[in-house]
Design brief:
Number of domains: 2
CATH class of the largest domain: Alpha Beta
Low-confidence stretches: 107-117
Number of strands: 12
Order of helices and strands: EEEEEHEHEHEHEEHEHE
CATH topology of the largest domain: Rossmann fold
Number of helices: 6
Helix content: 10-25%
CATH superfamily of the largest domain: Nucleotide-binding domain of ferredoxin-NADP reductase (FNR) module
Structural class: alpha/beta
Mean pLDDT: 81
Radius of gyration: 19 Å
């Protein structure tokens, strides 16, 4: 079954592939269109899933992990939560199972969407790319380095930004990512990230595990100020810092960044801030 995505009408789609990437997270792939058709799936847009669970229709918003302007398939990374009605239901599905989908939509409301950051993602991407595209005369205004700190599922919005800027870096000479998780099995999209780093040498990734396996060459414990000093760019007019993870991690990284001279960056950030928190 192949069907075009529609923003006002529910369409039934088959799951064409399921890839388990951690103990409780999988990537679900849906076919989107007839072979001759593509859909536009811009950065920052999301879709709705609907399923009949225990006799009632349940609707949830999800954001594609690999947004593309033209695509024939849709990929969603979904973590199954113990009390998550939809996520637990999706975890029971197999290849060939069907579900109702509609979209894409622009900016979800804060109350109804699990990813209320899409407008911020798009604005931040534009701020990074347009700053360098439109800066022609003052070289000090050109962004040359971007440091990123992500934790757990916070990698999802970060990956959307990376897909846009790593392949279109303009003047970006270096993009450095510190990605923290509890165990190696909790690292989401590691294969995708490693391939990106291998293909684009100006992008570097550094993993941090709280509970590492015996043979682990990466960093261990929690993110420290020393790690920021070691792997990320220093505070400079041409450098920026992006943070996306659990609240406790964000607060500690903000504290460290302030101690290192980054004097801007709050939980409510603006896209042109030197330190931006999703």
């Amino acid at each position: 079954m192949k069907c075009r995505l529609h923003s006002t009408k529910w369409k039934q789609f088959k799951i064409s592939h399921i890839k388990k990437i951690s103990k409780d997270t999988s990537i679900y792939t849906f076919n989107l269109a007839y072979p001759e058709n593509d859909i536009n799936l811009p950065l920052g847009h999301h879709i709705q899933l609907r399923a009949k669970i225990n006799g009632k229709h349940v609707v949830r918003y999800y954001t594609p992990i690999f947004p593309r302007e033209k695509t024939k398939e849709l990929q969603l990374m979904i973590k199954s939560y113990p009390n998550g009605t939809m996520s637990k239901y999706l975890a029971t599905l197999t290849i060939g199972s069907t579900i109702d989908i509609r979209g894409p939509f622009g900016n979800p409301s804060l109350d109804s969407a699990p990813y209320p950051l899409q407008k911020e993602i798009e604005s931040y991407r534009d701020a990074l790319m347009n700053k360098n595209k439109n800066t022609q005369h003052n070289e000090e205004e050109i962004l040359t380095q971007l440091g990123i700190v992500a934790g757990g599922s916070g990698i999802t919005p970060v990956l959307q930004v990376l897909h846009e800027i790593v392949t279109n870096p303009y003047h970006l000479e270096r993009i450095s990512l510190i990605y923290a998780n509890e165990t190696v099995d909790d690292i989401l999209l590691k294969e995708e990230l490693d391939k990106m780093a291998e293909k684009h040498p100006h992008f570097q990734i550094h993993y941090v595990l709280h509970h590492p396996p015996k043979r682990w060459n990466g960093e261990t414990g929690y993110i420290t100020k020393k790690m920021l000093q070691k792997y990320l760019p220093c505070n400079d007019k041409q450098h920026k810092l992006l943070i996306c993870g659990p609240l406790e991690m964000n607060e500690s990284v903000l504290r460290y960044s302030k101690e290192l001279g980054w004097n801007k960056g709050f939980q409510k950030s603006k896209s042109n801030d030197k330190v931006f928190v999703f």
